[in-house]
UniProtKB/TrEMBL annotation:
Superkingdom per UniProt: Bacteria
Keyword set includes Nucleotide-binding: yes
Species name: Actinoplanes xinjiangensis
Keywords: ATP-binding, Nucleotide-binding, Transport
Biological process terms in GO annotation: transmembrane transport
ABC transporter domain mapped to chain residues: 3-214
Matches recorded under PROSITE patterns: ABC_TRANSPORTER_2
GO molecular function, one term: ATP binding
Name under which the protein is recorded: Peptide/nickel transport system ATP-binding protein
The organism's taxonomic lineage, starting at the top: Bacteria, Bacillati, Actinomycetota, Actinomycetes, Micromonosporales
SMART domains, per the entry: AAA
A Pfam family that the UniProt record links to this protein: ABC_tran
Family per record: Belongs to the ABC transporter superfamily.
Amino acid sequence: MSLVADGVSAGYHGRRVLTDASLTIGAGETVGLRGPSGSGKSTLVRVLALLHAPDAGHVTLDGERIAGVRHRVPASVRTRIGVLFQSPRAASDPRLTLADLIAEPLRAVRHPRERIAGRVAELADRAGLTADLLVRRPHAVSDGQLQRACLARALVHRPRYLLCDEATTMLDASTQALVAAVITAEQQATGMGVLVVSHDPALLSRWADRVTEVR
Ligand SMILES: Nc1ncnc2c1ncn2[C@@H]1O[C@H](COP(=O)(O)OP(=O)(O)OP(=O)(O)O)[C@@H](O)[C@H]1O
C-alpha cells in the first residue's frame, strides 16, 4: 500500500514549477519533504492530494493509477487522502462553525446523518476542542484552535495517507506537540502513511522516518 508520485512535472498557467519529482509514502511510514522556498513542495502536495493535475507523470494510490483531479476522482478514492495546510484560515470556509467544518466532508459523501455528530464529537475530543469552541466560526478562534479543527476534518474519513504542508509552522509549541501527537496516535491505530513538508530540520529529524528533497 502506498501513495506514489512518479516523474511528476507541474506548474501554473504554462509556467513549470516542479520537474520530474518522484516520491513514495508507504503505509505506516512518515516521510519528510524539504527543499528551498519556491521549489514546488506545496505543488507536489496538491498533485498528491488530487487537487492539481500534473503536466507529466502520474499519481498512483494503492496500486491504482489516478486519472483526473478533484470531483473527477471518485469520492471513495479521494477520501483516502487527507491534507493539512499551513494556513488554516485560507483552508476554512469562514461561514461554517468548527463543528460544521469537521462534518462537511462527511456530509459531502452523504455519510449516514445519525452517525455524523458522534464522529465529529470523537475527533473534536481528540483534537482538544471543547463544545464551546465547536459552535464558533473561524474569526472567533485562534489559529491553533482552527488548525486543530482542520486536523479533525482531515482525519474525519480515516484517510490512509495524510499530507501535512508546513502544517505546524504557524503554531505555538504546545499546539505543535498536540497536532503531532494526534497524528502519531492515528498512525499507530490505522497504519496511515504521513508526509511532513517542513523547512525545520529538527522537526523532520524528530518526526520523519526518512527525508526526501525537492530541488
Ligand atoms: N496558485 C498558483 N498560481 C501561480 N503560481 C503559483 C501558485 N502556487 C504556487 N505558485 C508558484 O509556484 C512556485 C512553487 O510554489 P510552491 O508553493 O509549490 O513551492 P514551495 O516549495 O512549497 O515553497 P515554500 O517553501 O515557500 O512554501 C512558486 O514560484 C510560486 O510562486
